[in-house]
Design brief:
Layout (H helix, E strand, L loop, with lengths): L1 E2 L13 H12 L5 H8 L3 H13 L4 E2 L6 H15 L3 E5 L7 H4 L1 H9 L8 E4 L3 H9 L8 E4 L13 H12 L2 E2 L10 H7 L3 H11 L3 E5 L26 E3 L2 E3 L19 H6 L2 E5 L6 H9 L5 E5 H11 L1
């Protein structure tokens, strides 16, 4: 519920306060017409319009917009949580591709609130279009928290795979402290060997291992995607059966790992590390993501979920 201004503004009204109040009461509570109000108050109809507007300006009228789907959304989230065996499910009533980050802001804020973070805690950030959108338009306050990229992606041509930039943007909008990972997703053998000896890289690895939470995009089935992170060998037939990925950990529909040439040197937070994160929040929206979400849960890559009601219903139908 929100007020247009403080009730103390009423003292500065250019109309008598009791007249403003009576006009607003008749208009909003009695559903009286402006003609009826004008007759009862002995004023003109245009004056009634001004009185009603003044009541709102002065804070005498408060308007609440009630989400008609709230109860349904809560029940749907609780049901999905049980069926998937997750720690928590947080749903947006509706989402739209053009406003996805903002649409997921409220359920993400609820998920982050459940992490009970304090300054100095580490939260992991993956890449992907959904996380990219959330970083730009849906981040909750995270003052003093360290945001840590989970995969390499330096200089990737696609903005949603540029993990340092995603992390920097998310930190800027949330008040968090960003860490950076200066590596490609799939470096050469020599480059990977040098990374393993680099103190800055090892610092990030250390943050991975002690993260309290994670904000993780869940990638769609590989055959349906128009792009993957640079270096991933999309021509390998192993990807034909990939239901999706979390932090470039690709998996089959049953959640089992899909390996491919070079996967052993991928710069990514491992399945084992993700499984140990207390609040690993997967984010995905859309019917096409249903097998991806199910696979991610079965593989232990996420233990909480942020999505929308339509996707939740599709998941329940698929699992029925």
């Amino acid at each position: 519920m929100s007020a247009e201004s403080s009730p103390t503004d009423a003292g500065r009204s250019r109309f008598p306060l009791d007249t403003v109040y009576q006009a607003a009461r008749m208009y909003y509570l009695e559903d009286a017409t402006q003609v009826e109000i004008a007759s009862r108050l002995g004023v003109s109809r245009p004056t009634v319009s001004r009185l009603v507007a003044e009541a709102r300006r002065a804070g005498l009228v408060r308007i609440e917009v009630v989400d008609p789907f709230q109860d349904e959304t809560v029940a749907l989230a609780e049901r999905l949580q049980v069926v998937l065996g997750l720690r928590a499910v947080h749903l947006a009533a509706v989402t739209h591709r053009a406003t996805l980050g903002a649409d997921l802001a409220a359920p993400l804020a609820a998920a982050v609130d459940g992490m009970a973070l304090v300054p100095g805690d580490a939260v992991l950030m993956s890449s992907g279009r959904t996380v990219y959108d959330v970083a730009h338009a849906g981040m909750p306050p995270l003052a003093g928290v360290q945001l840590v990229p989970t995969v390499g992606g330096q200089a990737d041509p696609m903005p949603w795979f540029q993990t340092n930039e995603i992390t920097r943007t998310a930190a800027e909008r949330s008040g968090a402290i960003p860490a950076f990972l200066f590596a490609q997703a799939l470096p050469s053998e020599a480059m990977r060997a040098s990374l393993d000896e680099d103190p800055a890289f090892q610092h990030v690895i250390g943050l991975w291992s002690r993260a309290k939470g994670a904000i993780l995009g869940i990638g769609a089935p590989t055959p349906t995607r128009d792009a993957l992170a640079r270096g991933v060998p999309v021509e390998d037939q192993a990807f034909d059966r990939a239901a999706g990925d979390v932090c470039l950990n690709f998996y089959a529909p049953d959640g089992s790992a899909i390996e491919f040439p070079g996967s052993d040197r991928m710069v990514r937070t491992s399945r084992e590390v993700l499984a140990a994160v207390p609040h690993a929040v997967g984010m995905a929206v859309g019917e096409s993501k249903v097998p991806s979400i199910i696979g991610a849960v079965r593989g232990g890559l996420v233990n909480e979920l942020v999505t929308d009601a339509a996707t939740a219903r599709a998941l329940l139908d698929a699992l029925a």
